[in-house]
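Take a look at my tokenised protein here and describe the backbone shape.
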Amino acid sequence: MNGVWAALGIAVAGGIGAAARHLVDHSLPRRARARFPWGIMLINLTGSFALGILVGLAIDHPLASVLSVGLLGGYTTFSAASLDTVRLLARKRCGGALLNGPGMLLLATALAAAGILLARS
């Protein structure tokens, strides 16, 4: 797959990933999302686990970039999680901000490692 086709595949997969993120995030009741960004948490944790599996499989194929950079890059979102953490702090929900900021980072890292280990076993 040459550079142009790879970029096109990544762009299309990124759009699919972003649409999936929207569907997952908005599948939760509005009331639940208003108190804590559970959808974005779920998205980033499952995306980290899936990327760990993909990396653990060590697939040497152009589609690996389409799946990792495109699909999972479009699906996961660090910027929305960061903004959600700021919003939680602004509402004086310090516990939620800790869970959403450093807590999500630790959980996502652990799940990425678990995905790698699972794929290599």
Remarks:
- Residues 3-120 form one domain.
- The chain has six helices and no strands.
